[in-house]
Amino acid sequence: MPNPFDWDYLTTPPASDDVLDVVTIVFLAFFLVGFVIAAYVYYRPWTRPFGRLFRRRAVMKVCNIAMWIFGAGLFFFLMRLLQINPLTFGEPLWLWLSFLAALGLLAWVAYAATQQAPLPPERGQTGHVRQAAPRAQPARRPVRRDKSHR
Predict the structure, then answer these.
(1) Measuring CA to CA, how many Å separate 113 from each of 19, 55, 62, 99?
(2) Long-range contact list for 139-148, CB < 8 A, 24+ apart?
(3) Rounded distance between C-alpha atoms, residue 137 and residue 150, angstroms
(4) I need a labelling partner for 129 at 20 to 30 A (CA). Which of 27, 56, 93, 144 fits?
(5) Could you give phi then psi for residue 71, rounded to 5 degrees?
(6) What whole-number distance in Å separates Cα of residue 26 and Cα of residue 29?
(7) Which of 60-64, 81-85, 125-129 is the most confident on average?
């Protein structure tokens, strides 16, 4: 197996017997698992641990970006598997760039998780700050009397 970081390896379309090497299979597993997880969490943004750390719209936004990145990685794998090279998309360089973009996204989410303030408790649940506080009763307005009957 050639060095996966060699520039000649990165910019040369693979030969027909080098399409499914170890690095490419690892990339396929990474992109496939990442795409499935991002799609699942996109449609269920309240699941743990994401639903407890972030707001639903933020989870859906990050999952949308993740599906684009992992989908692009799957696209580049498909170009490599089909042995077509339109606009050099069959070169291993694109798989590595997709992998670096996915790692950058994961690092960004990890950084945001450490910087995020905890969300307030959901409606109907008591939080640790006001756990024993009584619930406020809404003020009742007095009944309006019709003055025309006097």
Answers:
(1) 38, 11, 12, 21
(2) none
(3) 34
(4) 56
(5) -65, -40
(6) 5
(7) 60-64
**Residues contacting residue 66 through CB under 8 Å, at least 6 positions apart:** 34, 35, 38, 102, 105
Distance separating alpha carbons of residues 19 and 147, to the nearest angstrom: 89
In this prediction, residues 59-70 reach a mean pLDDT of: 93
Query: How far, in Å, CA of 7 to CA of 107, rounded?
Result: 26
* Spatial contact of 11 and 29, defined as CB atoms under 8 Å apart: no
Cα(42)–Cα(67) distance, integer angstroms? 9
Helix residue ranges, H only, 44-91: 50-53, 56-81
- Which residue in 67, 71, 73, 72 sits closest to 41, CA to CA? 67
Map residue 149 onto helix, strand or coil.
helix
Give the whole-angstrom CA distance, residue 68 versus residue 91.
19
How many Å apart are CA 65 and CA 37, to the nearest integer? 13
How big is the chain, counted in residues? 150
Start-end of H helices in the chain: 7-10, 22-43, 50-53, 56-81, 92-115
pLDDT one-digit tens code per residue, 12-64? 877 777 788 888 899 999 999 999 999 998 988 787 777 777 788 888 899 99
